[in-house]
Amino acid sequence: MAPLCISTQNENEEGYILHTPEPERMDALVEHISKYMSLRDKSNKDKRVAICYFKTPGKDALLASGMEVIPSLYNFLKRLRNEGYDVSNLPATVEEFGNRIYRDGSVMGSYAKGAQEQFLKTAHPVWLSTGQYETWAKEVILPEKYKEVTDRYGDAPGNLLTTEDSIAIACLRFGNVLLFPQPRPALGDDDFKLVHGMPVAPPHSYLAPYLYMQKGFKADALIHFGTHGNLEYTPGKNVGLSQADWSEALVGNLPHFYFYTTGNVGEGIIAKRRTHAVLVTHLTPPYAESGMRQRYNQLLEDIHKLLDEGTEGHRMLGMRVKKETVRLGLHRDLELDSVPDKPYTAEELERLDAFTEEIANEKMLGAYYTMGEPYSERDLLQTTLAVSADALAYETAKADRDKGKITTEQLQDFTYIAHHYLPTAKKRLTAMLQNPPHDTVAIAPDLRPALRYREQLIASTTNEFNAMVRGLNGGTVLPAPGGDPVLNPNVLPTGRNMYSVNAETTPNPRAWEDGKRLAEATLKQYTGKHGEYPRKVSYTFWAGEFITTEGATLAQVFWMLGVEPVRDGQGRVVDLRLVPSEELGRPRINVVVQVSGQLRDIAGSRLKLLTDAVRLASEAKDEAYPNYVASGTVLQEKLLVEKGTSPKRARKCL
User: Fold this and answer.
1) CA-CA distance, 428 to 73, in Å (whole number)?
2) Is the Cβ–Cβ distance between 262 and 87 less than 8 Å?
3) Which helix (H) or strand (E) holds 221?
4) How far apart are CA 317 and CA 304, in angstroms?
5) Which residues are CB-neighbours of 385 under 8 A, at least 6 positions away?
6) How far apart are CA 490 and CA 456, in angstroms?
7) Which residues of 543-579 are buried (b: 16+ CB within 10 A; e: fewer)?
8) 117-145 burial by CB neighbour count: b if 16+ within 10 A, else e?
9) In 3-state terms, what secondary structure has residue 224?
10) Confidence tier at 106 by pLDDT (50, 70, 90)
11) What are the backbone angles phi and psi of residue 7, rounded to the nearest 5°?
12) Tens-place pLDDT, residues 335-355
């Protein structure tokens, strides 16, 4: 199912705060469950399924965050036909299907008058009379919300794809399946803002397809196809939605499913929360060889020779390395000099080696993914390597560290691992994956995860359609975390209902250690360059990164401030502890944090904790090292007072 608010906290006559049911929300919940359960009883041939696909205006290809929409949608419709759904008159080829989409399922802006006229002449839209449209609008949309539409756009039918008394709805109908493109949620030219939310009511041309889907077509279920549409970004509350919110009203109480890329968990959770969508994940595009290793291979070999044998006695080689570095422009990224007759020092070569190695190992996405079609053997190999090679290299290195063969510092050195362990890991994996065994018993235990990932990648293609079909039958779409498969292989196989993290447990223990290490690395890099600690560090918090790392960005800020989390018996971070100055061993660093709206909505309690952390650090006394949080707070208070803010309010603002 999906999150639905059914009660609120209210103060009663005696002053007690009680949970009280909201009648309109309770009715919506009951109707939603009833419609979902009715999918179990209704035969597939009689079910009506509406599919809204994402398409940018004009003649652009249908692409949805790494997914080829037209062949994916065509494959899904064929699967529905095989399941007994009425998909009559589906074109015989995907090419013909694509032509129909472009002719009858276009999206046009208000500026494209010529395209509108051509569409009305050649396409086959559904015509909705103004009277019928207004009747349905009164049944679905609250009067005050509909007034927002008429106040901004005038009375129906509006001026986009209309005649004097009718609205044309771009759509395609194949038996009991309705396809329609998601319209533009406002009238304007800024595509990014239109997709990610305009603070205005949607126009008549946006409401009409959703009203027709509910009232005219009488859909039993709604599917949004591809990442991501704009319904979840229409105006309204971020949580606890009601009939007064556009996304809630336009979905209605229908069972709602959403084919969504597993790689975009941050925005996916918005769709789940604001449209009560069951998110059915699909694979990201396969990984491909970037070709960067070949480009930088000779440079890396020369750097390694200089580092192994020393720079003395190899001046010509050192000059060659510098010349190539300057030619490639790497010196600018590392802020190294470009003086032609002065070789780099050993320390500079180490920095150059680490940076070049990172570029050479960069992973790159290949062709867009088509649902219903498995990765090619080459794509399967490269993607499995991308998921498993680094992990195998580090596991092998960790075992050597435990045996005393390498040090902890070498284990934590990316360049060392890339030189000494990653090539061997890739070689072992490639040999096995190119001839996968039928019996895994004889396979070395450290290679078995790669085989499992390969199997899960293969299974994902089938699992994605299976999950959607199961949902349309009123069944359960099993849950799974979201994120990139390389960063989190637990998202495999796809075809599962993506969820976020429990914000109350963040930063979790692993994220805490990662965050501390990253913070110290930042400080080490800064002090190495400037000879002193920074007074203030700026961070930007994004929801996707927060979810994927389970709070590592938050942990970095906490450690900069010199505070650490306090957990309860269930692992929730409920308080903070000030790390003593002597234990911290350095100044407390002030921070400025910019937070995305998505993160605010999913982790509001963590922002309260962040505020507490800043206050705790700013009030620390008897410090053995400078406290830049405290001095920064005093300075900010002084600046506010100088601008006319009262001392009391200035202190409160901080």
Assistant:
1) 38
2) no
3) strand 221-225
4) 11
5) 287, 426, 429, 430, 433
6) 10
7) bbbbbbbbbbbbbbbbbbbbbbbeeeeeebbeebebb
8) eebeeebebbebebebbbebbeebbeeeb
9) strand
10) confident
11) -150, 160
12) 899 888 889 998 899 889 988
* Separation in Å, CA 469 to CA 35, 49, 83: 16, 11, 8
Give the residues across from 231 on adjacent strands: none
- The predicted pLDDT at position 108 comes to 74
pLDDT score of 191: 54
Structural tokens at position 409? 């510092």
Distance, in Å, from the CA atom of 264 to the CA atom of 54, rounded to the nearest integer, reads 16
pTM of the model: 0.85
Backbone angles phi, psi at 502, to 5 degrees: -80, 105
The token duo for 376 is 């090619």
If phi > 0 it is left, if psi is from -120 to 50 it is alpha, else beta; for residue 22 that is beta
Indicate the burial class of 185 (C-beta count within 10 angstroms; 0-12, 13-18, 19 or more). buried
Beta carbons of 71 and 373 less than 8 angstroms apart: yes
Question: Would you state the pLDDT for residue 442?
Answer: 82
Q: If we measure between CA atoms, which residue out of 394, 395, 389 comes closest to residue 361?
A: 389
- Segment 509-548, tens digit of pLDDT: 999 999 999 999 999 989 988 999 999 999 999 888 888 8
3-state class of 578 per DSSP?
strand
- Determine the pLDDT at residue 116: 79
Q: Is residue 161 within 8 Å of residue 167, measured between CB atoms?
A: yes
Take residue 259 and report the two structure tokens written for it: 């084919």
Mean pLDDT of 437-456: 90
Residue 11 in tokens? 């103060």
What's the rounded Cα separation, in Å, for the pair 416 and 400? 13
* Tokens (6 digits) for 531: 């000879």
How far apart, in Å, do the first and last CA atoms of the chain sit? 42
Q: Find how far residue 48's CA is from the centre of its chain.
A: 31
Amino acid at the residue 456: Q
Q: How, if at all, do strands 536-541 and 497-499 pair?
A: unpaired
- pLDDT tier, 196 (very low <50, low <70, confident <90, very high otherwise): low
> Which pLDDT score is estimated for 205?
92
616-641 confidence digits (pLDDT tens): 999 998 788 999 999 888 887 777 77
Read out DSSP for 367-399? Answer: SPB-TTSPPPHHHHHHHHHHHHHHHHHHHHHHH
| Least confidently predicted of 194-198, 394-398, 493-497, 632-636 | 194-198
Residue range 285-335, pLDDT digits in tens: 998 877 777 888 899 889 888 888 887 778 889 899 999 999 999 999 888
